[in-house]
Design goal:
Elements: H1 7-11, H2 17-26, H3 44-56, H4 68-82, E1 92-95, H5 97-109, E2 115-120, H6 125-132, E3 136-143, E4 149-150, H7 152-158, E5 163-169, H8 181-194, E6 197-201, E7 226-231, E8 244-247, H9 250-263, H10 269-279, H11 284-305, E9 311-312, E10 320-324, H12 332-343, E11 348-349, E12 360-364, H13 369-386
Parallel strand pairs: 2-3, 2-5, 5-6, 6-7
Antiparallel strand pairs: 1-8, 3-4, 7-8, 9-10, 10-12, 11-12
The structure holds pyridoxal-5'-phosphate.
Length: about 400
C-alpha cells in the first residue's frame, strides 16, 4: 500500500548496518566485533535501586522533561565531573537515549530546507534524523591523516544561508577520535561567525583514555549556542534502558520537552530510577569499565597493526577501532563480506558512516579479551593471503 506512505518516509533509509546484522545472525561461529554496545552488565547498585523502586510500586508518569530529581542528579554529576553548571529545572530534558535527545533537538530547530552539518565519517543515524525534520544533512570531512580532526576551511565552504546547525561528536563513533580543546574553541568562533547552533553529541564522554573530556558548553561564554547531548547507554552499560539527555538554552529545551510529550509523554519511569542511581552514586564501575576498554584497546590496536595491509590509529575514546584497509584493493563492503564469510569475524564497512569512511572498517573492542585475541588470530591467518 505504497500510496499511503509519505514522501519523507521513502527518502529515509534505515542504516545499512542492518545488512551486517542479518548476515552475522545467519552465519555460525563468528567473532562478533561489529556490535556498538558495552559487553558488561548494568552495574549491580543500579539494578538494586530499580528493584527498590519496583517494590515501592508507584510507577506513574514523570514530568515531560523527566523527573526533576534525575535532572538534578545529572546537574550534580556534570558539575562534579567537569564544573559544568546549568539550571536543572529549565535547561535539561531527560530523553529516551541520546538518540531521542538528538531527534527532538533537530525537530525543535529545523525548518524545511534548513541544512545541518554532520561529521563524515560520523554516526549513521544523523542523516535520517535531519531528513525526518525535512532538513538537509551536509556531510563535512574529517581529516584521517590528522586523527580525524575538523577541517575549518572545508567547513566554511559548506556554510550557506540555510545552514542552521552543526553536529559534532567527541569521543567519536566510528573513529574513536577526540576533538582537542583548541579545536573546540575554533569551532565556537566558527559557529558565532556564521550564527549557527552546535549540537555536541557527547554520548561517550566517560570513555576517554589519555586525557580529560571537555564538554563544549564549558567553553561557551553565553549559554545559548550549544545543545549538549549525553547518554547513560555507553558510560553505565545501560543501552537497553534508553536514557539520555539534552542540555541547552531554556528556549530550545522547552521545545524538546514539548515534542517529547507528543511522542512519549515522558521518559520511562523505571529507567529514570536506574539513571538516577547511575548518576547519583560513586563512579567506580564507570572507571573500571573504562580501564578494561583501555586494556583491550592496547591489545587490539597493536594486533591490527601487525596484520599486513591494515593500518589503525590509536583511538582516544569510545570503544571503536577505525582501520584503514584500502591496501586490500577491494571496497570496504566487499572486505566486510569477505571477513564475515571467510575469516568469520564481523565489522562494519566504513562507508556506512559517510563517503569519507570508504576504505575503512569499524571494529568494536567492547568485547572480551579472548574474543579480541581470537578475532586477531583469524585475521592474521587469512588476510595476508588476500594481498598475494
Ligand atoms: C555517537 C552516538 N550518539 C548517540 C548514540 C545513541 O545512544 P543512545 O540512544 O543509546 O543513548 C549512539 C549510539 O550508538 C552513538 O554512537
Amino acid at each position: 500500500m505504497q500510496k499511503y506512505l509519505s514522501k519523507r518516509t521513502q527518502i529515509i533509509k534505515l542504516s545499512p548496518i542492518r545488512e551486517i546484522f542479518e548476515m552475522a545472525s545467519q552465519t555460525p561461529g563468528l567473532v562478533r566485533l561489529e556490535v556498538g554496545q558495552p559487553d558488561f552488565p548494568t552495574p549491580t547498585h543500579i539494578l538494586e535501586a530499580v528493584r527498590d523502586a519496583l517494590q515501592e510500586g508507584h510507577i506513574g508518569y514523570s514530568s515531560a522533561a523527566g523527573m526533576l530529581e534525575t535532572r538534578q542528579a545529572l546537574a550534580k554529576r556534570l558539575l562534579e565531573d567537569y564544573g559544568f553548571l546549568f539550571d536543572a529545572e529549565k535547561e535539561a530534558v531527560i530523553c529516551n537515549g541520546a538518540s531521542a535527545a538528538i531527534y527532538l533537538t533537530i525537530r525543535s530547530i529545523i525548518d524545511p530546507g534548513d541544512e545541518v552539518l554532520r561529521p563524515d565519517p560520523g554516526w549513521a543515524q544523523y542523516d535520517g534524523v535531519i531528513l525526518n525534520a525535512d532538513g538537509f544533512p551536509v556531510p563535512y570531512p574529517l581529516i584521517p591523516e590528522k586523527g580525524f580532526a575538523l577541517d575549518f576551511d572545508a567547513l566554511q565552504k559548506l556554510v550557506t544561508s540555510r545552514t542552521k546547525a552543526i553536529i559534532i561528536n567527541s569521543p567519536s563513533n566510528p573513529t574513536g577520535s577526540v576533538i582537542t580543546q583548541d579545536q573546540l574553541k575554533v569551532l565556537l568562533e566558527f559557529a558565532i561567525k556564521n550564527d549557527i547552533l552546535i549540537i555536541s553529541d557527547e554520548a561517550y564522554d566517560k570513555i576517554i583514555y589519555d586525557r580529560e573530556h571537555v564538554p563544549l558548553s564549558l567553553l561557551e561564554k553565553e549559554f545559548d549556542r550549544v545543545v549538549t547531548v549525553g547518554s547513560c547507554s555507553k558510560n553505565y552499560a545501560m543501552c537497553g534502558w534508553r536514557i539520555g539527555y539534552a542540555i541547552g538554552p531554556a528556549s530550545i529545551m522547552n521545545q524538546v520537552m514539548k515534542f517529547q510529550s507528543l511522542v512519549n509523554l515522558c521518559p520511562n519511569y523505571i529507567s529514570e530510577k536506574a539513571a538516577f542511581a547511575a548518576l547519583n552514586s560513586p563512579q567506580t564501575a564507570v572507571a573500571e569499565m573504562r580501564d578494561e576498554y583501555k586494556r583491550r584497546r592496547e591489545i587490539f590496536i597493536k594486533g591490527l597493526n601487525e596484520i599486513p595491509g591494515v593500518k589503525c590509529a590509536m583511538p582516544e575514546g569510545a570503544f571503536y577501532a577505525f582501520a584503514d584497509v584500502s591496501a586490500y584493493n577491494m571496497d570496504d563492503w566487499d572486505f566486510t563480506r569477505y571477513l564475515i564469510n571467510e575469516v568469520k569475524v564481523t565489522c562494519i564497512p566504513g562507508s556506512s558512516f559517510g563517503d569519507k569512511g570508504k576504505g575503512f572498517v569499524r571494529f568494536s573492542y567492547a568485547s572480551s579479551q579472548d574474543n579480541l585475541n581470537e578475532g586477531l588470530r583469524r585475521m592474521k591467518q587469512h588476510l595476508p593471503n588476500l594481498l598475494k
